[in-house]
Amino acid sequence: MHKFRKLIPVCMTAMLISALSACISQAEASSETEVAETEVPETETAAADTAEDDVILSDDSSDFVLLSEAVPDAILEIRYYSTYNFVGERIDGYEEPLAFLTKEAAAALKEVSDDVIEQGYRLKIYDAYRPQEAVTHFMNWALDPEDTKMKDYFYPELEKDVLFPQGYIAEHSGHSRGSTVDLTLFDMTTEKEVDMGGTFDYFGELSHPDYTDITEEQYENRMILREAMLSHGFKPLEEEWWHFTLEDEPYPDTYFTFPVNSDSVAAD
């Protein structure tokens, strides 16, 4: 912004100050009138500020279910319980190789499972509910420029210092709201994962669902998964072919903190 300076005679300065004071007094009177006419109760204002500025955290797992119970045909490969992930170590909060979702998301996923089984596939789950402490683990890892041991496998085209600004790593994750799942298809005939043309958690354009520099078969495989998920109430993420969130998720503003272990969610 440019700044300009002008020399003003003393008498002119006095006149300007006087006029400015009158304008300020008039504006204050007008403002008081407007506030009186549109005054909002203090409690409502405080509540609105809290909803806008604060993240809602909860350790209440009562509305969550085990996917192994709710979707028994699904195969689980919980990557963040293992060391085969972009960090290269077990992630905080994943104390057992289990998958949780909200009851609503699990019920919808059961419909997807039934759908793809008729087509000769099973769902294979990489991740579902993700505790907030796991997201914090990702954040801390992203801020450590020296830790790049998994770069060749998951982000060879990117420098680590761009992962946070480009949105690959974030302070909060939709997974922590309990209605998001990362998954692929398992072919019952070949008894192998379906070839999607790229690995889960690869950071780059290759992971975009509509990426076309892959084979026709690989692209069609992505579309089979996408169509099945969208047909049963899930919405996609345009940067990751494996990532889907329940359209009508029950906790759109709440991020859960309980760990992934058998004590958090009891089987029915």
Question: Can I get a quick summary?
Answer:
With 268 residues, the chain is an alpha+beta fold. It is built from seven helices and ten strands.
The number of helices is 7
* Largest sheet entry: 6 strands, mixed
Beta strands, count: 10
User: H/E element string?
Assistant: HHEEHEEHEHHEEHEEE
Shape: globular
Helix content: 25-40%
Q: How many independent structural domains?
A: 2
Main structural class: alpha+beta
**End-to-end separation:** 64 Å
Fraction of residues in β-strands: 15-25%
CATH class annotation of the largest domain: Alpha Beta
Structure commentary:
Mean pLDDT is 85; it is low at 1-52. The protein is globular and about 45 Å long. Strands 3, 5, 6, 7, 8 and 9 form a six-stranded mixed sheet that branches. A two-stranded parallel ribbon has the order 1-10. It is 34% helix and 16% strand. It has helices spanning 10-37, 42-53, 67-70, 103-118, 132-142, 151-154, 216-231; strands at 56-58, 64-66, 75-76, 100-102, 121-127, 180-187, 192-193, 234-237, 240-246, 254-256.
List keywords for this structure.
single chain; 268 residues; alpha+beta; Muramoyl-pentapeptide Carboxypeptidase, domain 2; 2 domains; two-stranded parallel sheet; 7 helices; 10 strands; 16% strand; globular
Please write out the topology.
Elements lengths: L9 H28 L4 H12 L2 E3 L5 E3 H4 L4 E2 L23 E3 H16 L2 E7 L4 H11 L8 H4 L25 E8 L4 E2 L22 H16 L2 E4 L2 E7 L7 E3 L12
Parallel strand pairs: 1-10, 3-5
Antiparallel strand pairs: 2-4, 5-6, 6-7, 6-9, 8-9
Helix pairs in contact: 4-7
